[in-house]
Structure prediction request, 272 residues.
Amino acid sequence: MTIESGDYRLFRDFLERSCGIVLGDDKEYLVKSRVGTLMREQGIGTLGELARRLESTQQRQLRKSVLDAMTTNETMWFRDGYPFDILRERLLPELARSKQRVRIWSAACSSGQEPYSIAMVVEEYLSSQLAAFAGGIEIVATDLSSQVLQQAQSGIYAESALARGLSLERRKRFFDPVEGGYQVKPAVRGRISFRQINLLEDFTALGNFDLIFCRNVLIYFRMELKREILRRLRGRLKPGGSLLLGASETTLDLGHCYQMEYCNPGVIHRAC
Prediction:
C-alpha cells in the first residue's frame, strides 16, 4: 500500500482529533502495519478513502476498529520497576491509615498489566498488614480501546506475555493455568473495575482518587493537550493525592497544581 502525503495528513488529523495521538511525518509504516489488514478486509483502497469514511456518523464500528488498532501499545508487568517500589514503600503505608475507601486509577491501562501489577503489590502489602485499609481499596482501570479492555477483563495471558516483567514467584502466587495460558486469580481480578474512557473527553464521573497512574501516555500528545489533561487529572485527585507519570513525562509548568517529591528514582507529583 502506497500512502500519498495528503491522505496521510487526513488520517493523522482524524487520529489526533479522536484520541489526541500525534503521528510524526515519518510514521506511514506504523499506519500500514496497524490498519492495512483492516483496509483490505473492508475493501478500502487508499488511506484517504479510509479517512473520509471515518468522518461519517454511520461508520461507528469502523472508527472503533481503527482506534483499537492505532491505540494498542506495548506494555509489560511492573514496567520500569521503581513506580511499584514507590507504591509499596511510600504510598501504600500512607494510604493504609485511611478509614475511608482508598481509590487508585490506572489510566490508559492497555491490556491490563499495570492495574494487575498494582493489585499484586496491594495483595502483598495486605498479607503482612492485615489491619490496613479499613475502608477498603478499589482500583479503577481505563482505556480507550474496547479490544484491549476485553482482554484485560478476562485476565488471561499467554505464557510469552507473562515473561515480560513477571517473576516466577508472582506467577505461581497470582495466576492459575487455564486453556490458552494463565489467568489472574479471582481475588486479584476482583479488586479492579475496567471502564472505557477517552482522556480527551470528560472523566469527572469516575470520581476522585488518592492515587493516579498515568504513565507513558502523555508522550503521544501535543503540549497544550498535555497541560489540559494534567489539569483535569489534578481535578480528580483528592487533597494531597498523588500522580505517577512515565519516566520521560513531567507536570510541565503546572507548579500551582502539583508539588514534586523526589524518590530517587522516580517522582511523586502531589496535588497542591
